[in-house]
Amino acid sequence: MADRIADCADLLADLRGSGRQLQYLPIDLRPRTEDEAYQIQLALHERLSTAGHGARVGWKIGCTTKVMQEFLNIPAPCAGGIFERGLWQSPASYDFEALRKPGVECEIAVRLARGVPISGAPFDQTSITPYVGSVMAAMEVIEERFFDFHDEAVDAPTLIADDFFHLGAVLGQAVPATEALDLASLGGQTWIADQSMGTGLGADVMGHPYAALAWLANHLAQYDIGLAAEDVVLTGSIVTTKYPTAPSRAVTEIADLGRAVCNFA
């Protein structure tokens, strides 16, 4: 199995930088379980870090909201890595024509004030809260590296292995966690080319974004990984993925937190 994991990670690392799309992973490399998918993902992270993407500086959580679970037909949260090269302080800028069907997601992000010890697992919303240093409006920029994620051959383990569409994270102005309002009550909205594309609430994220953070800490502990001080975590999109169809300006906004902006030129 070790050879399959390494070979699949090699293929996905090449895919990340190639600009091409796949129909699906070769059947002999396709992860058979979610655990195997996460092993491939971690091997992929090692390759990305040595291929110019920089250090892993945080994590994204996918499918934490009902709207995204229905959109992707995946009933449970999934995790992926964020890398230094893809982390932006708003505004971000991407070459629209160079991307493979880019999309944007409206999220609440957190930055950790200190590391989360593996020994503390399992965490819940209450016990994870003291580790959060700041919160912010954020945008995840994604691209579809597979032609059709609804193809039954592009299943959840495949998407997990490939970091679940992740391309970049755009952060708005940080607000100290001690000053942040009740995140569950905050509304969010996505705009593309000055047109509102959808809305949602912080409570849509597993009841509260910190509940998603606790899920991530518990998930990573299974792989002997602890969240680190200064890690950024995207807690999940409260609006379904929205796709610019031409060069344009995308904005995600969280009430009382601010906004994140990405210019697709």
Return residue spans where pLDDT drops below 50 for at least 5 consecutive residues: none
Which CATH class applies here? Alpha Beta
- The number of E-state strands comes to 13
Can you count the helices? 6
What is the structural class? alpha+beta
Q: How many distinct folded domains?
A: 1
Backbone CA Rg: 17 Å
The CATH architecture designation is Alpha-Beta Complex
Q: In the CATH hierarchy, what is the superfamily?
A: Fumarylacetoacetase-like, C-terminal domain
Helix content: 25-40%
What's this entry about, in short?
The protein is of the alpha+beta class and 265 residues long. It has one domain: Alpha-Beta Complex (Fumarylacetoacetate hydrolase, domain 2), CATH 3.90.850. The chain contains six helices and 13 strands.
Please give the structural blueprint.
Layout: H1 2-18, H2 34-53, E1 56-62, H3 66-72, E2 78-83, E3 87-89, E4 92-94, E5 102-112, H4 125-128, E6 132-143, H5 156-161, E7 166-171, E8 175-176, E9 187-192, E10 195-201, H6 209-221, E11 232-237, E12 248-254, E13 258-264
Parallel strand pairs: 1-11, 3-7, 4-13
Antiparallel strand pairs: 1-2, 5-6, 5-11, 6-7, 6-8, 9-10, 9-12, 12-13
